[in-house]
Amino acid sequence: MPEIITSDRVPARGVARPTRALPALARAIVLPIVAVLVLAGLLIGPGTPTARADGTAADFTVTANLGLDGTLTVRQDITFSTVPAEAQQTFETQQDVLGDRRYTYDVSGFQATAGRQPVEPTVKVSGGRLTTVSFPTNGSKQVSLEYTVVGAVIATPEGTALAWPLLQGFDSTVSEFSATVAIPVPFSFVECNAGSPSSEVPCTFAAAGTEDARQPTFRDGPRGPGEFVQVRIGFPAGALESNQQLEDVWTLARAFSAKPLPLALALGLLVLGAAALFALHRRAGVDAGAGTEVSKAAEFVPVGPGQTEFRVLGNVRPGHVGTVADERVDPIDVTATLIDLAVHGHLLITELPRANEFAPTDWTLTRTDSDVSNLHPFELALLAGVTGPLDGAGSGGAGGAAAGVAGVKVSELPSRVYESVNAVQDSLYDEVVAYGWFERRPDATRNRWTQLAIGGLVGSVVITALLAAFTTFGLIGLALIVLALGLMFVAQEMPARTKSGAALLAGLGVLRSDLMSHPTNQLPPGRELSEISELLPYAVVLGGHQRWLDAIVASDEDEHEDRFDLGWYHGPEGWHLHHLPDSLKNFITTVSGELFAR
């Protein structure tokens, strides 16, 4: 090939560059060293060639025969001008194509000669992609290598084609290459490219069906070590059967293909699954008879002109209220129950003076000697857990007086209520079922559906892995995972109230509205503190407690300290009722955290 000279290799002429003179001592040292190196280079000559290019093939002639079954037999006759100790050639047995697919070829039946004498070739397969054949030359200039290829006839839109590099992976320079392919049927075209595997540079000569080349004939050269001469001979449809071996290659993009079919199936599955989840929730997770009846838990009852009092209807406690409202026993439900126990005289909450202005606030919870026979099991469990077992009744007894530790600090609650909080929650869940507000325990319902969702999620992950590994429908698996996660979300909303539970929920909505909007100045004069104390636990759960605390502050008309004005909450020295909003807010936050800091 003609030498290509680029502009940066053209020597510049007539241009003198200024140079800095070397000191005399530097010249005396450097110049002799440079001279020695130049002389050594001249004596040694060009750099030592690499081991794979220590020979030169003056002629590389290929004679190939294509059978009707697509099997290609190849004979390579090689004439060396510079004989290497060993000839080596590497064949690519896999070729990647577009669409995450690849052709595979079976190259076998290797036979080699050196000086017309058979020699034993060594065949090494590397990773299933490369097959390397090497054999000794025994000093002979004439060597040959024969082999058979299956899979070289591929299907094309026009018919079939033989596509195979008749020169590839040879470890020596080839001065001249020529090849002739005997074909059993008429051809439609011939092509030949040379250079790298992806080269589109045409060979020096490629012809067929002419006076000089009746069979497909190809010539090229020179070619460097490892370069290719790729030939392609086309055949009309039906003339020669394809024996291609085309297999799919796993890639992430192929496994989760967004082609129309898998994408449409995945989207359809998502739509149907979402509709199924909605229908499931409507069938199993919606309250029975919701919105048809209202059952009030408490209300403001007129007792005189412009006066009302707060009155609890039935036996609905603050702990019940929160559990029915959001189907969960939350920290605020337990804290409101604790305040309700204090309001009804079973506990005394005493705010302790701070050790210093930066120290956290602490309180003591002291059990009184009031009768506990009218308390619910969850209230008994909480009272016993906070202040110790009840006389003669244990944690669930009734009618006992204080026998536990008096003056338990709020900061000590975590170590005391580790097990009792679970008992309180269990009792509350059992009671809302016993009162007919739920058919099943809300926590059990959530757990059952959550376990089903987790099982579905695990199954979806397994299905996704299998689909991604063996098909192109991985998106369907992702859709299943999304639906399993959706079921996990729906599971939290599956507890359904009965008709009476739905009626109570509607009544709680009315009560919340009253607590948020009822005038705070219509309570009977002189009974403001007791009335507000009565409703306060309900307001803590449902909302609006801040405005009622402000009403307590407004009722304080003197400048004297009020540390003992509330029968259920005592403050430290110098404490006034206007401190109650901040004190109670701090108490609620602290107790909610301490009770569940386990």
UniProtKB/TrEMBL annotation:
Source domain of life: Bacteria
Keyword flag DNA damage: no
InterPro entries: DUF2207, YciQ-like_C
Name of the featured protein: DUF2207 domain-containing protein
Keyword vocabulary terms for this entry: Membrane, Transmembrane, Transmembrane helix
Domain named Predicted membrane protein YciQ-like C-terminal: residues: 315-551
Residues spanning the membrane: 21-44, 261-280, 449-467, 473-491
Listed Pfam families: DUF2207 (PF09972), DUF2207_C (PF20990)
Residue span, DUF2207 domain: 59-235
